[in-house]
Amino acid sequence: MSDKSELTKLKGIGPVSEKWLNAVGVYTKEDLEKIGPRRVYEMVKRAGFHPTVNLLYALVGALNGVHWMEVAESIKVEEFFK
Prior knowledge:
0% strand
């Protein structure tokens, strides 16, 4: 883990996720905001890691201050009512 990383301070980002994000050059919330959660998720996949969709939910949640399960639930509800 990099000394300059602060990602585990964000809701829903644990040490493994932080390691993956650091490996693709994401160290701060600002980095995540600038690149965007979907693109960061794709970068992690292309780097050879094997994230589940829960990482994408966690990235969205980290930007909004909510746990990834809340993001996942809101997406399920949204999909149900389409």
